[in-house]
Amino acid sequence: MNAETDPVLPTVSVTPIDELNPNERALVGAALAATATAYAPYSRFHVGATLLFADGSRHSGANFENVSYGLSLCAETVAIASASSAGRLHEIVAIAIAAVGELEAAVTGDFIAPCGRCRQVLAEAVTICGHDIEVLMLSRDGQRVRKTTARALLPLAFGL
Ligand code: THU
Fold it and tell me: Which residue range(s) make up the domain with 13?
């Protein structure tokens, strides 16, 4: 069954980039810009994640790799941990994720999707925020955005 139409995931939709509202487009644009700050010499897959806070301000992070590959930190986790350090974890209302790089679509999928650990990290933010968090994932061609929420990304989550 196509995940886009799977009734278990009713909140997943795909929107052409031109049809996003200006705030969403700016958020996705910021995530794309944040890919430039990735430290990813091993995968050469540069990921940017930008958080939108309730007051409209934004906070970005990018993946931070390590020579011991498994120690690498994803962009989403960097952004959320950094927001926490800034005392703003509870203010998150949305996150946009974008990627540019050498990994093939066969490996990454058509849309950049948060890994399992990042979903659990997002779930923690949902708990702290007291509400669900919108998740916007840019397609590899930069033309479409898959929209869902942190809760939909991790059904039956530990801690939620
Ligand atoms: N990566 C992220 O930063 N976020 C994701 O959503 C998926 C993967 C990073 C981890 C690693 O540095 C590189 O992308 C290749 O997996």
Answer: 4-153
**Does the CB atom of residue 34 touch ligand 1 within 6 A?**
no
How far is residue 147 from each of residues 14, 24, 120, measured CA to CA in Å? Answer: 6, 10, 18
Q: Does ligand 1 come within 6 angstroms of the Cβ of 82?
A: no
**Does 76 participate in catalysis according to the annotation?**
yes
Amino acid present at 47? V
Compute mean pLDDT per 10 residues along the chain, 160 residues long, and list them. 52 94 97 98 96 98 98 98 98 98 82 97 97 97 96 91
Is residue 158 a part of any domain in this protein? no
Within-domain flag for 143: yes
Which domain CATH number covers 99? 3.40.140.10
In the set 76, 91, 102, 104, the catalytic residue is: 76
Q: What angle do CA 5, 74, 51 make, to 5 degrees?
A: 70
Q: What pLDDT is attached to residue 71?
A: 98
In a domain, 74, yes or no: yes
